[in-house]
Amino acid sequence: MPSPAFSSLTAMPAxxxxxxxxxNSRQRTRVSQAESGRILSGTYGGQFFEASLVYAPMKRxxxxxxxxxxxxxxxxxxxxxxxxxxxxxxxxxEVANFLNYDDDTxxxxxxxxxxxxxxxxxxxxxxxxHHTDTVFMRASLxxxxxxxxxxxxxxIRLEVDLVERL
Length: 166
What we know:
By secondary structure, the chain is mainly beta. The chain is 10% helix and 40% strand. It has helices at 4-7, 60-72; strands at residues 20-33, 39-54, 80-83, 98-101, 108-112, 118-120, 130-131, 136-141, 148-150, 156-164. Strands 1, 2, 3, 8, 9 and 10 form a six-stranded antiparallel β-sheet that branches. The protein has a four-stranded antiparallel β-sheet with strand order 6-5-4-7, with no helix packed on it. It is globular, with a radius of gyration of 18 Å. The chain starts with a helix and ends with a strand. The mean pLDDT is 86.
């Protein structure tokens, strides 16, 4: 199990399962271009992930647990955990799989496995054990407003935007 800090967090409902997940990696950079065309850039701040969970159209009773959970989060105020199982091809340390460390709540992406395991962002040098079987993102809603769409056919459409909370 990832960091013990995850066990104290409320989990986003496991069902319904998102039909698609989009992950964005945000790295703050400052860029300036001179009149000559030369570009200077540098990073500042930290890196964090954003996720969009897109759900297939569903009946109200299937969407109810998720709608209730989203309402109970009080906009961006609440921190919770989201399991990211769809982003691994198999359990284990493979390139492009996400992982958690048992001494950290940051989400990491595996960028190399040979000769040593490398992640982005680089893991803190604390010697924590990594976990790839069940991977969580410590998150909150990205906006205070969550839109719930009801189509003419009576199906609910949801897309939930999340931001990693460090």
